[in-house]
C-alpha cells in the first residue's frame, strides 16, 4: 500500500498546492460558507460498469477524470455540492459523483441523481474502523484527520483519509484521499478531493438545501 500512497502524495502537490493561491478564508468564524471543491479520479481498470444512463461504460487502465463542485454550507451545518464540471472519460457511476447534500452531524447524504430522481441514504453505509491521523495544515488551516477502512457489499476494500479544519465552522473535509481495492487486493481506483476556494458569506440560497417538489425519492437512510 506504500507505493500508491507515494503516488498520491505526489499528485496532491499538483492538486492542492496549485490551488492554494486562489484559496480564501475570510472570517473563519462565519456560519455560512461558499467555495469550490475539485475531485480527481484515477482508474486502474480496465473494467466495465453500469452508468446511470445509457449502455455500460468500459474504462481503460490508468485514465484520469476530473469533477468540480460549487460548495455551500448553511447555518444548520448542511453542506451542498453542486456539480460544476466533468472532464475525462469517467462518467457518473451510480451517482458516486452526483450533486449532493451532506448532513455531517446526522450521518446522512442526499444524492441528486437527475432532475426527477433523488437518493437519500447514510453517509457511512458500512461497518468501518477509524484511526486518528496526525494533525496537519491544509491550505493554511490547522486540521484533524481520520482514516476510515471498510468493505462494501461487493467485497471491495476502501481506505479513506480525510482532514477537516479545526479553525473554521466549515464541516466538510478540506482534503480527502480514497483508495479502492478489488477483492483480490489489487488497486482499482484512487480519488483525490480538495476544497480549493472557501469564504464566509452573509447568506446562501436556501433552495440549495431543499429537495425539489415532484421528484422521486429513494430512501435508504434507515
Write out key terms for the chains shown:
222 residues, mainly beta, outer membrane lipoprotein receptor (LolB), chain A, 12-stranded mixed beta sheet, 1 helix, 12 strands, globular
Task: Indicate the topology.
Layout: H1 2-17, E1 33-49, E2 57-73, E3 79-87, E4 99-103, E5 108-114, E6 117-122, E7 128-138, E8 141-151, E9 157-165, E10 175-181, E11 187-200, E12 216-220
Parallel strand pairs: 6-12
Antiparallel strand pairs: 1-2, 1-11, 2-3, 3-4, 4-5, 5-6, 7-8, 8-9, 9-10, 10-11
In short:
The chain is mainly beta and 222 residues long.
Highest-level CATH class: Mainly Beta
Distance between the termini: 34 Å
Largest sheet: 12 strands, mixed
| Fraction of residues in H or I helices | under 10%
Descriptive report:
By secondary structure, the chain is mainly beta. It has one domain (2-220): outer membrane lipoprotein receptor (LolB), chain A. The chain contains one helix and twelve strands; from the N terminus they run H-E-E-E-E-E-E-E-E-E-E-E-E. It has one helix spanning 2-17; strands spanning 33-49, 57-73, 79-87, 99-103, 108-114, 117-122, 128-138, 141-151, 157-165, 175-181, 187-200, 216-220. Strands 7-8-9-10-11-1-2-3-4-5-6-12 form a twelve-stranded mixed beta sheet, with helices on one face. The longest helix has 16 residues, at 2-17. It is globular. The chain starts with a helix and ends with a strand.
